[in-house]
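Appendix C reproduces, verbatim, an entry submitted by the partner laboratory led by Prof. M.T., so that reviewers can inspect both the input and the predicted structure.
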Amino acid sequence: METSQSNDPCMPSMPSAAGDAGCDLVTVPARQGLEAVDILRRGAGDAVGPVLHDDGGDTLGFVVPAGTAAGWDVPGSTCTETEGRGLRLSPEPPVEGSDWLLPPGEADLATDPAVLRRALGEAARLIEAADSCR
């Protein structure tokens, strides 16, 4: 299995005869995702793409380049191929019951999967350390 490390910006996914791949979506628990967003935004040169937040507050979804799902292996998260099934990078959230935490236009086109992997790992360690102090 080969992990895609592509930084190609994702294109708005609209089904077409050419079969646009769209973007993939990494979904994580909200607490870990919010920590990761903070880590990414503080990082020198580490950019974060659009991030979806579900209205129930349980998960965050990071837009990553198409092809990321094929090699995604971070415990506690999932990466879903959208394959043109409706993830559109527009001001309106692509899924009912969600909203943009970082909307398209205010963020990079997609989060680099390698950078996201590191940020999620750091976030998990921070959460574990904080929880062990209680």
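The chain is about 25% helix and 20% strand. Additional entries are available on request from the coordinating office.
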